[in-house]
Amino acid sequence: MRTIIEKGGSMEHDKRVGLAVRIFSNHIGREIEHQITNNLPNGITGLQGRVICFIKSRADDVFQKDIEEEYDIRRSTATGMLQLMEKNGLLIREAVSYDARLKKIVLTDKALKIHDQIIEEIDRIENQLINDLTEDEINTFFSIIKKITNNIK
């Protein structure tokens, strides 16, 4: 097994993959939050914006479990976010006829009206992220992320 940690137990700060990914993720998360919060109405967060887009894109019913899996978030995180979105009039939960325990998540007219704005902001940020990258670099990035993800699962 290969290791990038030197025998003395020290290593250059920027060679720790986990730390680099965390810093990278924090930068992206802050930028998304900043742009969506400042450019969209109703105090919508970046994750809320993405959830609205996810629900809108699905042809079938969406449940809390789907959101937890799509964004790899804990149940408690999803519950709190969905409750806040419901309180803010962005979604409602409706019972389904085939299972009394399940409630599907449905976007309100309020959420549907801002969906296109959310898409525009997310697309703008995504384009900013890949601004000077080639198609090969983008493909390599996703290949590496997939391998690292599989290594920790």
UniProtKB/TrEMBL annotation:
<keyword id="KW-0804">Transcription</keyword>
<dbReference type="GO" id="GO:0003700">
    <property type="term" value="F:DNA-binding transcription factor activity"/>
</dbReference>
<dbReference type="InterPro" id="IPR036388">
    <property type="entry name" value="WH-like_DNA-bd_sf"/>
</dbReference>
<keyword id="KW-0805">Transcription regulation</keyword>
<feature type="domain" description="HTH marR-type">
    <location>
        <begin position="1"/>
        <end position="150"/>
    </location>
</feature>
<keyword id="KW-0238">DNA-binding</keyword>
<dbReference type="GO" id="GO:0003677">
    <property type="term" value="F:DNA binding"/>
</dbReference>
<dbReference type="InterPro" id="IPR036390">
    <property type="entry name" value="WH_DNA-bd_sf"/>
</dbReference>
<dbReference type="InterPro" id="IPR000835">
    <property type="entry name" value="HTH_MarR-typ"/>
</dbReference>
<dbReference type="Pfam" id="PF12802">
    <property type="entry name" value="MarR_2"/>
</dbReference>
<protein>
    <submittedName>
        <fullName>Transcriptional regulator MarR family</fullName>
    </submittedName>
</protein>
